Amino acid sequence: MDLRNCRKCDRMYGYDGIDLCPKCRNDDSAELKLVKDYLYDNPGATIKKVSEETGVEHSKILKFLREEKIEISADSENMILDCERCGTPIRSGRYCDRCVNELKSEFKNIAQSMTEANKPKETPKKTGDRLFVADRHKK
Length: 139
Fold this sequence. Notes:
Elements: E1 3-5, E2 12-14, H1 22-41, H2 47-54, H3 58-66, E3 81-82, E4 89-90, H4 97-118, H5 133-137
Antiparallel strand pairs: 1-2, 3-4
Protein name: MerR family transcriptional regulator
InterPro entries: Flagellar_operon_YvyF
């Protein structure tokens, strides 16, 4: 098992694919639950209001939005997130739908070209016009 230090508290833990130790992960889950519960009761709340009422840091709420664990309501005018690729306002995540589709298409094209490059090349067909060394040495 790979041992690493937690990104948040610097404690050592058995790495399982996530950069947080189990305690910090539980803390994050508890904060996410607080935010979700508050937003369930107050659907149009701003990030500042959610942060003040729940005690969860503003940056942590933005992180939840980027990770698509929560999203800004469709009727909200507070579009505080922008697509990291084109700058279009988005409700959650890192990219707008248009950029996601473009990236998928680009990755698909790259994967296809890599697959084609890894295919074994056809060897030219052998013909009967060859010189045999054994024939030269017979005299």
